[in-house]
Amino acid sequence: MLDSMQEKPKFVFVTGGVLSGIGKGVTTASIAKLFQFRGFSVRIIKIDPYLNIDPGTLNPIEHGEVFVTDQTWTFRPVDGFEFTISEIDLDFGTYERFTGMDVHPSQNITSGQIYLSVILEERKGGFLGRTVQIIPHITDRIKQRIWDVVEKDPIPDILLVEIGGTVGDIEAMPFLEAVRQIVRELGRARTAVVHVTLVPYIKSVGEFKTKPTQHSVRTLQSLGLQPDVTICRAESRLPESAKEKIALFCNIPNERVISNPDIPVIYQLPLSFEEEGLGDILVEQFGLESRTPNTESWSKMVESFETANETIVIAMPGKYTTLGDSYKSINQALTDAAAAYNARIEIRWIETEERNTDECLKEDLSDVDGILLTPGFGERGVEGMICAASIALKSKIPLLGICYGAQLSTVAFARNVMNWKGAHTTEVDVDSLYPVVDLMDEQKLTEDKGGTMRLGGHDVRIIKGTKLHDLYGTDMAHERFRHRYHLIGRYLKKMDEKGLKVSAVDSTGRIINAVELTDHPFWIGVQYHPEFKSRPDNPHPLYLGLIRAALEYNKMRVKK
Ligand code: GLN
Q: How many angstroms does the Cα of residue 407 sit away from the middle of ligand 1?
């Protein structure tokens, strides 16, 4: 029999308590980083207990941005049924940025996928004679999906599984039961349960309150799960007395109560965990070889974020401005690129449903250094976005349009420079006289909405002699897409004469991937999402380009 200490992988299950949105994703990614610091390989699963097959049809206000993977996955719940998945939870963006690894869409498991596959299998006669039940049929399927991810070659040293939501949520019960079974089957030398909770500081009494944590740990224990480590989100590091109290209630030693304090740069978190000894605690629990963590290059990168001393303002006109997470990867890509130039970003959200006239947008844009025209869907806020692009066109504010932003800035050019009144995307105006943005041919017959856009990674051919080519310094790139509509070539041909150039196309040359203005310091629209490929230690050339142009614009603006 194999010595269980040698067996791969070791499992780290991350559960949450008290509230959602306390940074379980960043915590999971940071724990993965602790293992990477020691040279162990990692893979991460995120479980989302909602019934959607994937988050692709969700409004970003619900759970934040939809992250797009490079690879697409054909999910076959049973023979004869297929779903294309490339749209997954935004936490995967955090995982990719922290670990530097590309994730596979099958690493995002939803209740929708699990239930659908069990129910369809029942119709095929897969459970003949039996009652199909949550336990064991749903829980078995969950375990099988987890093992499917594990068994992809090469098997990682560590598998992290983040369970979305908080313990006690009805939807998450089968997943926590599956975790309980895995923990029982494999034992403590191969599994660790890390519970993330909130410890509020009550100013009026000057005290950290541990009661919510006690309750959530109790809920976890009532499900048969004992935390091995409790990670406490709090304004600052917890005092020893609070740690002692929590340790007592959790049945764990004091050093296994780990602080997760407010920090100015999220990439600091793995270093903060390292200081609290979390890496060594987990390595020891798993009986892994004790190695000195190599944090040097990560620390250097974090330092470059901390020492940034200039601030530039980037406007983001769009409609999902009430939730910062709606554009999480964009915010991060901007921050990553700015740090490379020793600068910080201040994002100016502009809700273009309300701010949609030339007058108020001129005012909003009078003290910004650049514009990021956001991705999106549908009619709401569109006129304001087109108006913001028109202002940037005339006043030479640097502009980067992403997907819908690229489409709408092209509409702005068509209306203002070509004088094509009523130019539009057919997503908003099907009867437009100048439909400069229209459905792709393959989309015209598609009725289903989930997983049917042009998705995932595709080759991009960058045209020589363009600004885009200067930024990339190569003829070919590989970028991630998520769109149904596209820029129409016959209109772009005419716009070319007036200075809007096609700067990238797909590998067939049919689909326009990027446009740029010749007579403007920085006006680029891309049909893809470069933000998904930006890494803190390797920012994306397009975001670097925008930041550079914004810094120059800032110098001129401040001089005036
Ligand atoms: N709504 C546009 C399309 O479907 C843009 C999508 C996006 O911004 N991701 O093509």
A: 8
